[in-house]
Amino acid sequence: MENSLFHNVYNPDVLSCIANLSNDEVFTPPELANKIIDMLPQDLFENPNTTFLDPCCKSGVFLREIAKRLIKGLERQIPDLEKRIEHIFSKQVFGIAITELTSLLSRRSVYCSKFPSSEFSAYQFPEDKPQGNIIYQRIKHTWKDGKCVYCGASQSEYERGDELETHAYQFIHNIDITKIFNMKFDVIIGNPPYQLSDGGSGTSAKPIYHLFVEQAKKLNPRYLTMIIPSRWFVGGKGLDDFRARMLSDRHIVQIVDHENSNEIFPGVDIAGGVCYFLWDRDREDKCKFISVADNIATESKRYLNQYSILIRQSKAIPIVEKILSYNENGGKRLSDIVSSRKPFGLPTNYQPRENGIACWFIQRIGLKYANPNDVNDDKGFLNKWKLLLPKAPIAGQTDFSKPVGFYYDGNTRIAAPKECCTESFIVACAFDTKEEVLSFKSYLFTKIVRFLLLQAVVSQDVTKQNFIFIPDIGNYNIIYNDEMLRNRWNITDEEWLYIDSRIKNIE
């Protein structure tokens, strides 16, 4: 395979390669790469035995910047520049490209040549290593029941011909990387692909970045640092177990969280922002958590597993703690009463019927009908008054450094008895009277309650677990407002100003 790529003068159409890049293969700017590298102990770059691996090379920027630091850091140990470069490229810097195109880009960035065994390479590798130490091998997914058993990719989407990329990333497909390179690595660093289509409706996709993190940990490096979406703070689709492991891992000594992805990836909107972290095998401590919003950094030292969901804003933590300390209604939370997705068993793409049970569909369809045989009422919601909340109330908002609204009269619905809904909504509450629903709605619409919701949200979707920090006060027979809740929970003027700055006014 290696020999055929270079010795058979195979020259792929670059435009075809570019067209086949995944939307989630976000290239890392050099400035960001250096900020991430800065988290590492800098004496690593003065040690000729330190080994580095980027298991998800795209542009090669991490390896290039590492090589530059090694070239400077090893001046005393290896004074001869040519020998120093030879040593660094042959024994210290390694990569695994995610596609054929990115393998060429990475080699060009690091070796100054797409062909490391050519005379134009900064270090001329031997003929039996035509890829140098930045490898790419096209591999196949392993299909079972229409999904890849390793990454969850959809067979219908990614079972492709030889002319198209399969996006079967070598690092996470049960391949022993240590045997490929015949070594262990001191540092693993990179910006992995974020997700792959899982074959669901619309643009449904499965996150995969956590697979790179977990595979890297299995290799037991001294240090691990990667940049990944911040959605794992809350969990959700395939990320709950990963979140739990990350929050309990005291080897994570630093996290830098950007609520607005545009601040570090210009022109790239990643809902909920992105973060990068440093994992230190030989150190267990509180995590230095740096939250960045509008280019202003706020730093705190804390254990990550204080709650089951990671609260990203340090200023929010004492407010959440204060409110929960009142132990309202025996400590019950709204996450205990809000419904799961698909509350009546009807998917988003369910088609309205001519008659049957009245059913709320997406906004452009409104109130139509569902076949009674299709409606599942195992939660007993159907014969009650209900408040329906949109599943994606902040669709389109990717920058969480800006005030968030969530709910208003225009996107919520009060459903009468004998009315149901599709998966486009979740049931926030179900009561015997409309008055109780209106009371609950007034409580949910307060800025303080929506602020508590925000602490558990990092994407456009809102599920029952996102209500984990909101007390279920149990008494819904009056109309609530923020002034009442401020007095109830002793919210100070300073705390209120912060809450007010984070939540939009009701439209």
Q: What does it look like?
A:
- This protein has 15 helices and 19 strands.
- By secondary structure, it is an alpha/beta fold.
- The protein folds into 2 domains: 2-312, Vaccinia Virus protein VP39 (Rossmann fold, 3-Layer(aba) Sandwich); 322-502.
- A 9-stranded mixed sheet has the order 3-2-1-6-9-11-10-12-13, with helices on both faces. The protein has a 3-stranded mixed sheet with strand order 15-14-18, with no helix packed on it. Strands 17-16-19 form a 3-stranded antiparallel sheet, covered by helices on one side.
- Helix 4 packs parallel to helix 6 (100-111).
- It is globular.
- The protein starts with a helix and ends in a 5-residue tail after the last helix.
- Residues 1-10 and 13-20 have low confidence and may be disordered.
Keywords, separated by commas or semicolons:
single chain, 507 residues, alpha/beta, Rossmann fold, 2 domains, 9-stranded mixed β-sheet, 3-stranded mixed β-sheet, 15 helices, globular, disordered N terminus
Radius of gyration from the CA trace? Answer: 26 Å
CATH superfamily of the largest domain: Vaccinia Virus protein VP39
Low-confidence segments, ≥5 residues, pLDDT <50?
1-10, 13-20
Query: Please, how many helices?
Result: 15
For the largest sheet, list the strands in their spatial order: 3-2-1-6-9-11-10-12-13
**What amount of the residues lies in strands?**
15-25%
Amount of helix? 25-40%
Structural class: alpha/beta
Mean pLDDT: 90
Class of the largest domain in CATH? Alpha Beta
- Integer tally of domains: 2
CATH architecture tag of the largest domain: 3-Layer(aba) Sandwich
Taking the sheet with the most strands, its summary is:
9 strands, mixed
Quaternary organisation of the protein chains: single chain
- Which fold name is given in CATH as the topology of the largest domain? Rossmann fold
Number of strands: 19
